[in-house]
Write a structure and sequence with these properties.
With 94 residues, the protein is mainly alpha-helical. The chain has two domains: 1-45; 47-94, no CATH class. It has helices spanning 2-29, 34-41, 49-80. The protein is elongated, with a radius of gyration of 34 Å.
């Protein structure tokens, strides 16, 4: 009796595994909608020209602010160390 029940449970489990495997294969082979495909591949494309231009403008602005802050820091350090407060000749980092 116990062996028969174990075989029945094992057979049922085997059926469930096969059913799950079939459902998974069907799900994986189903074509994605264009919206789903777009959401998965959006990050693979280059941003628009307007977005790139905006990023470049931000980069230039940040670079100018950084160079100004560095020059100010160097001026303050020279003054603290007993040098003059004026900046030496400017060199561009571009």
């Amino acid at each position: 009796m116990r062996a028969a029940k174990s075989l029945l449970l094992l057979d049922q489990h085997s059926f469930n595994v096969k059913q799950s495997s079939t459902e998974l294969a069907e799900f994986e082979s189903a074509p994605l909608s264009s919206a789903e495909m777009e959401s998965l591949t959006d990050h693979l494309f280059v941003p628009s020209k307007e977005d790139v231009d905006k990023l470049l403008r931000y980069e230039v602005m940040i670079r100018k602010q950084l160079n100004h802050a560095i020059a100010e820091l160097e001026r303050l350090q020279r003054r603290r160390n007993g040098g003059t407060g004026s900046a030496p000749e400017s060199t561009s980092s571009f």
